């Protein structure tokens, strides 16, 4: 049984407080199918999200199976299923794969049991015949069924549906409502559906009507027309406009006992008519043992592996993103290699003067050395920075949309019991593989045409760190932003400022350099490769053109490591925050 006691939900609105839910009370027995209806903005979805725990209530409490959720903890993930308005599946996956991944993330079981769970979910929602169809090819009604199937894998005792019939044609809408009604008859499950439509009302066991955040009615469909004094369900909304929400709330408080008595009688009669035993409340002394028998959530490693496997499946199916990754990996090193002839000249040594005087040939040799040194220094510095900036661009592309682009799916999976730690860990593993592939290939390809003039392993290490730092920072930005477009824009700005603010091309004023360079990962990778990797003669030439200020190779390593750590910390913080629409 689910019971709401004096539920209030308020949000700040400038200097005032806006009341979205006002003193809402209702009771829903096991095996019950309830609709929440009302005009737009009346608090329907707000109430559903309050039940789910997405909106923490300002006052009041929900009682679930005798347990006060406000005092004794929220729903266990396996107890509740929540189907939002938006799609909770990836377009690139098939129906079967979507349900399989949902099951693997929520249920700890052997392969045979998981296969049975997947098959049952497909059968219950009528998706067996299209199990191999990609999500992007599904109709609106089929996507709603898929959303339900993905929730049914954990056999929730409470199923919450937010506008799952919105935008459907009348036939598809009725099919979904009938499906929800059937789901409410299994295992004493409570199904609550938010809908704006007043069609198919006769299929519900009860209707809860909201107006301006107030409960105006909760009773059987047959009694609703009598209560509102209308001839049909379509007349309810115009009638609601005749009074404000508080007046309807007061009216309901005066009449609810009679309507609840009738509702209870109809609830008992329904199960008697269907020949199904009436669901009994779970005795308090049995609840702990029942919960121990529930399939526990998969552990950290299991969820991480499942998320990582799903991410690679999506990458391989997303041809646009896959081709972009391949193009960047192949083309960017070629762009650097185009400059491979530059910077390969040997710097001539000046002849020693025995008399202490310089002849014309000595002056010409010094002039030649200066010209070659300037050419070599500029080329070496430029090629190193070019590699670093291109890897930074790769890093931005790797992760700028990685979390923000699937924010709502992530929030839904967190509600279902997927931990933040395995989610971020799967992203870290996926991105680490990309960073290694991109950086090592960049170094190896360029090395073939332009052998690094010094300790090559130091240079490769700083290329890895440059890519990793930018990838981590953009992952943090992605997690902190609300939308993928915001994350992409900020990441583009971050990459765009790398070159001008590094001081490697145009020297920055010392005061400006000391302020901005600590935040420019390209500077530290470029500086580390020069300070710790280049052979001494070439390093002196490069430094004569562009000073690395206060940098040493050890400092560069630590600063880049700090960039990576800061990005990952921001990613964990951002992924931990709850950000629903």
Task: Kindly describe this structure.
With 581 residues, the protein is of the alpha/beta class. The protein is 56% helix and 11% strand. The chain is built from 21 helices and ten strands. The strands form two sheets. A six-stranded mixed beta sheet has the order 6-7-8-3-9-10, with helices on both faces. The protein has a four-stranded antiparallel beta sheet with strand order 2-1-4-5. Helix 6 links the parallel strand 7 and strand 8 (190-194). Helix 3 (95-106) runs parallel beside helix 5 (140-152) and helix 15 runs antiparallel to helix 16 (456-480). The chain is elongated and about 115 Å long.
Give me some keywords for this one.
membrane, alpha/beta, 6-stranded mixed β-sheet, 21 helices, 581 residues, ATP-binding, transmembrane helix, ATP-binding cassette domain-containing protein, ATP hydrolysis activity
Task: Count the DSSP helices.
Answer: 21
Rg of Cα set = 32 Å
Give the % helix.
55-70%
**Biggest sheet record:** 6 strands, mixed
Identify the strand order in the major beta sheet. Answer: 6-7-8-3-9-10
Domain ABC transporter: 2-237
GO molecular function: ABC-type transporter activity; ATP binding; ATP hydrolysis activity
Subcellular location: Membrane
Membrane topology: Multi-pass membrane protein
């Amino acid at each position: 049984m689910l019971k709401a006691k004096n539920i209030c939900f308020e949000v700040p609105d400038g200097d005032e407080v806006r009341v979205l839910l006002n003193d809402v009370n209702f009771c829903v027995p096991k095996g019950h199918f309830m609709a929440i209806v009302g005009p737009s903005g009346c608090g329907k979805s707000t109430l559903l999200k309050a039940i789910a725990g997405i909106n923490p209530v300002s006052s009041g409490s929900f009682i679930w199976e005798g347990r006060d959720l406000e005092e004794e903890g929220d729903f266990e993930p396996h107890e509740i299923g929540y189907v939002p308005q938006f799609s909770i599946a990836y377009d690139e996956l098939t129906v079967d794969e979507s349900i399989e991944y949902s099951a693997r993330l929520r249920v700890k079981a052997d392969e045979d049991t998981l296969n049975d769970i997947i098959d049952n979910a497909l059968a219950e929602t009528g998706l067996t015949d299209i199990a191999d169809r990609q999500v992007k090819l599904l109709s609106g009604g089929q996507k709603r069924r898929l959303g339900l199937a993905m929730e049914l894998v954990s056999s929730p005792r409470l199923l919450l549906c937010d506008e799952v019939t919105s935008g459907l044609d009348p036939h598809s809408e009725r099919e979904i409502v009938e499906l929800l009604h059937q789901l409410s008859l299994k295992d004493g499950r409570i199904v609550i559906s938010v809908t704006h439509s007043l069609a198919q009302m006769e299929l519900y066991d009860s209707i809860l009507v909201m107006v301006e955040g107030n409960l105006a009615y909760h009773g059987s469909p047959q009694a609703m027309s009598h209560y509102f004094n209308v001839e049909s369900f379509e007349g309810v909304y115009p009638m609601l406009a005749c009074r404000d929400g508080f007046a309807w709330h007061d009216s309901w408080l005066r009449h609810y006992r009679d309507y609840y008595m009738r509702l209870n009688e109809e609830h008992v009669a329904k199960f008697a008519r269907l020949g199904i035993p009436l669901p009994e409340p779970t005795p308090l002394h049995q609840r702990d043992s029942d919960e121990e028998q529930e399939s526990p959530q998969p552990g950290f490693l299991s969820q991480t592996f499942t998320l990582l496997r799903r991410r690679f499946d999506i990458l391989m199916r997303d041809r646009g993103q896959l081709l972009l990754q391949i193009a960047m990996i192949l083309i960017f090193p070629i762009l650097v290699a185009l400059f491979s002839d530059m910077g390969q000249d040997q710097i001539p040594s000046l002849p020693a003067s025995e008399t202490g005087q310089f002849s014309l040939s000595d002056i010409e040799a010094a002039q030649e050395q200066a010209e070659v040194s300037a050419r070599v220094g500029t080329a070496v510095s430029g090629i190193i920075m070019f590699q670093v900036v291109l890897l930074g661009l790769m890093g931005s592309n790797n992760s700028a949309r990685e979390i923000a682009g699937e924010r709502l799916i992530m929030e839904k999976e967190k509600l279902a019991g997927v931990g933040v730690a395995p989610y971020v860990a799967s992203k870290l593993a996926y991105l680490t593989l990309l960073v290694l592939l991109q950086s090592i290939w960049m170094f190896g390809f360029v090395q073939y045409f332009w052998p690094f003039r010094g300790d090559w392993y130091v240079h490769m290490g700083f290329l890895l760190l440059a890519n990793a730092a930018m990838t981590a920072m953009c992952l943090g930005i992605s997690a902190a932003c609300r939308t993928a477009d915001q994350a992409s824009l900020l990441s583009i700005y971050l990459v765009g400022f790398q070159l001008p603010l590094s001081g490697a091309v145009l020297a920055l004023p010392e005061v400006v350099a000391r302020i901005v360079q600590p935040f420019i990962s390209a500077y530290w990778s470029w500086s580390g490769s020069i300070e710790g990797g280049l052979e001494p003669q070439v390093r002196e030439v490069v430094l004569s053109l562009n000073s690395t200020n206060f940098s040493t190779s050890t400092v560069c390593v630590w600063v880049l490591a700090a960039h990576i750590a800061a990005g990952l910390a921001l990613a964990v913080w951002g992924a931990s925050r709850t950000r629903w629409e």
